[in-house]
Every structure is written in structure tokens, then in C-alpha cells.
Amino acid sequence: MAEYPQTLDRRQYEVQPVAFSVRGNSAARTAGDSVEGHSVKQKVIELNDVTCILGKTNVGLYESHLIDTAVIDAPLDLDAILITHGHADHFGWASTLQKRTGAIVVAPKEDAFLIEIPEVNVRGMFSWARPPVEMTTRFFLGEACTVDRYTEDYPFEGKIAPLLLPGHTMGHTGYLCDGVLFAGDALYTQAVWERHKLPYSIDVELTRRSLKTIKNTAFDWLVPSHGEVMSKDESAGQIALHLERLAEIDRMILRLLERPRSTEDLIYAVLKELNVQDNLAQYWLSVTTIKGHLSGLVSTYKVAYDISDHRVYWKAKE
Q: Which architecture characterizes domain 10-255 according to CATH?
């Protein structure tokens, strides 16, 4: 394998024109163009033989495979769209690209229903009732798209392979392409933690295992869905940070549960201590994440629970 620098010199990678074309409508797109009313602000870099298109959601292009769908147009020879998981900032353009290019959509089996029926995600967050519009996050409101093949059944060949990384969602999957790992939302970087005190996760224990999977996987570069590209060496520090932040939240919850608290009281105490901004949609995402931590603490025998006077109470074990 060729030698690559251990630290990415980002000065080498100026914003380059983004050349995209679609069947029946070829056109060049430059970073910052507006396409069909949508602003496209992207930076494109090449790592090994992989094209990384960096923006609000980072995506990849390797041998006619597109990893996630933050771009509006797609290459002429696009064969497959590989989705990491069923949140709209990752599959939102899949239906459009599927129709324009004839590419098939490939997604993890356990997340496929979130892509084909996005309302499942919306209702699941609200205990299967329909939440008011103001309580629904835009990340769950993507355009429905048919999933043609499950990731588990897709015939990957050459230097591309899936890597199961659950925790953010049950089926969350990264893709390793010629030494470049597209990790989706399995790894939150320091920049993400600085913006969001309680990033979304449905299963903290699975998230920990996935972070360890990333640590034990051989790759040259890691591309998180949100954040800067990093080398293998740089990723070790970000993985350690993510694990420590999860541990800090667990410790905080255990401290708050030195006395019994109802679910609602605990949610209030956690959000207050982290100074999370009052926002209806963010609140329900936080509820899921806090319950994910509670589930992990119960499964590791650190927290007990009971019901009294029609409320569920939680308490740290002695």
C-alpha cells in the first residue's frame, strides 16, 4: 500500500469544482452553485482513489458507488447509492438520484423501513402516537425511497466493504472504500460535542462497541458524516473523546439518581445540567438519548427502577 501522511494537510485541498452530471441532463456544478432552489456548498478532496464531497453531510464517491446523498446531482455512471442509516440528512436525496440515474439504493436491513416509511421514525420517537409538527425533527422527515437491496445482501467487490456500526440507529453501517472509512454518525468529533451537549444515540452500549470496532479496523482515513476528515492516528483521539463523553453522561445520571427520580424529573435534571436549549424537536431527541443511557445503566446493573403512583422511578444501585 502506498504511504500517506499521518496528518491531513488541509492546505493542499482547496475548494474544487464539483463536476456532476445526470442521465439526460449533463451539467457542471461548482461548489456554491444553486441547483433546483437548493444551495450546494461543498469542498471536494481526493483520498487514495476515493472522492470525498464535504458539506453539511459528508459523502463519498468510489467506483460508481455514492455513499449517502447530500449531493443533488450524481455521476453519469452511478450504479448504487449506499446509505449509512435511516435519517433524512443521509438518505434525503436518494429518491431523486434513484429516479435520475437508475442507480439502485442499498441500505442496512434494520434501517430500510426508516427510509421507505420515514413516518416510522417520527412515530417511534413519540411512543408511536403522531407528534405535533413542531415536535418533529427535520432529520426524520426525508422523502420516502424504495430500498432495492439490503446492504447485507449486496455483492460488494474489490476494495469496498460494509462495516456494521450500530448505536446511532440499529442498522447503522459504515463503508470502507480503498482505505477510506465513511463512518456515518458512529463517531462524534470534538466539534460536534462542542455544538451539541447530548448528541443523538438510541443505544449507548452498542455505540461503545461500534467505536471500538472503528478503533480496531485498518484504514488510512476516516470521514465522519459531520466534521473534518481525519487520519487513522487522529481518529484514536476522537474515539477516546467520544467514549469519555458517554462515560461523563453516565456518571452524571448516576449522581442525579442518588435519590429516586421519575423519568420526567430525570430528563429535566439532565437537560438543565447540560444547559440544553429549549426546543420542542430537540427535546424529544434528547429524551431518546437519555433513555438510551438509562437502558445501558440498567443492563450493566447500575440502575434500578420501579413504578409508584403511576410514575416510573429510577435510582442508582448502592
A: 4-Layer Sandwich (3.60)
Task: Name the DSSP class of 216.
Answer: T
**Cell 420516502 found at:** 144
Q: Determine the Cα–Cα distance for residues 171 and 64; give it in Å rounded to an integer.
A: 23
Distance CA 282, CA 199 (A): 10
Determine the residue type at 120. V
**pTM score, two decimals?**
0.86
190 is written with which cell numbers? 470534538
CA quadruple 245, 246, 247, 252: dihedral positive or negative?
positive
Per-residue pLDDT tens over the stretch 71-99: 655 556 789 999 999 999 999 999 999 99
Run of H or E including 234? helix 232-256
Alpha carbons 80 and 104: distance in angstroms, whole number: 5
Listing DSSP states for 157-200 in one string gives -TTEEEEE--SSSSS-EEEEETTEEEEETSS--HHHHHH-SS--
Q: Give Cβ neighbours of residue 277 (< 8 Å, ≥ 6 apart).
A: none
Are 144 and 102 a contacting pair, CB within 8 Å?
Answer: no
At residue 39, the 3 state secondary structure works out as strand
Show the cell assigned to 308: 409508584
Mind listing the pLDDT tens digit for each residue in 241-258? 999 999 999 999 999 999
**All structural domains of the chain with their residue ranges:** 10-255
**To 5 degrees, how large is the angle CA 115–CA 116–CA 117?**
95
* Contact (CB, 8 A) for 162 and 77: no
